[in-house]
Amino acid sequence: MSTYQSTEIFARLNEALDAFSPSERQDLVKQVNGIFEFHIKKDKSPNAEVKIWHAEVKNKGVINEGPAPSTPDITLFLTDEDMVALAVGDLSGARAFITDRIGLKGPMMMAMKLDVIFRSLGMGPPKGAEGDLGYDGFESSFLILQIYEYLQVLSDEERKAEVARVKGVFLFNVKNSKGDTAVWTMDMKNGIGQMKKGKIEGLKPDIVLEMKDKDFVDLFMGKTNGQKAFMTGKIKVKGAIMLALKLDTMMKDTQEKIGFFGQKQAKL
């Protein structure tokens, strides 16, 4: 019997997946649309054994031991202990990435869907901050959660310094392809800063940014230049436009911290 606790975790995930109806499986595939490869280290020792599993949640929706049958969209590097913590809900994917407990090769947006897989199969962490901040049907929810987690890992003194540097209240109005609107408020003007879903009663925004969900994602991913997005009307700004430049700096700090592009090494 394998000494890997992850073996049982993947077996339980498969059992849950096998219980899905064909339509439920396709709904999960549509929502995730990615191939994951997990490189799981037995422990943190330098020469520890590494086992590989994959989750093909792009076409069929299957989870098996061994390398992915085709090029994975995302490869994750973590310990057996952290894999179990993710699965049983003691650790969220967002917190694991930002605290360097998971290394990755590939786009962070895909990695953020790991919690979606776990929850869909009856495992993983409770929604917590993601439930408080997220909107169904908005990729931007993953970005907002990352900014939230970025603030959470800072000390109170670091957060106060960030607030002193930014000095602004941001209101985001984001519209998806269905025409639905998501609203978030980021208060980087008072106390130690906060991110909230919706408007904060009694708090007037210094800047309001309106954009499409895809444009917000592209901006954060570096696919769209912020200045060009403002000039072409992809992002509409009302209020203190200079705060938009500070937002850009803060987003880049978040990207650097969580390794949003390319690769991020875990502290294994």
TrEMBL record:
Coiled-coil positions: none
One CC-aspect GO term: cytosol
Highest taxon in the source lineage: Eukaryota
Domain SCP2 residues, every copy: 13-118, 151-252
UniProt cross-references to PANTHER family, sorted A to Z: SCP2 STEROL-BINDING DOMAIN-CONTAINING PROTEIN 1 (PTHR10094:SF25), STEROL CARRIER PROTEIN 2 SCP-2 FAMILY PROTEIN (PTHR10094)
Designated name of the protein: SCP2 sterol-binding domain-containing protein
Species, as recorded: Lobosporangium transversale
Lineage, top ranks: Eukaryota, Fungi, Fungi incertae sedis, Mucoromycota, Mortierellomycotina
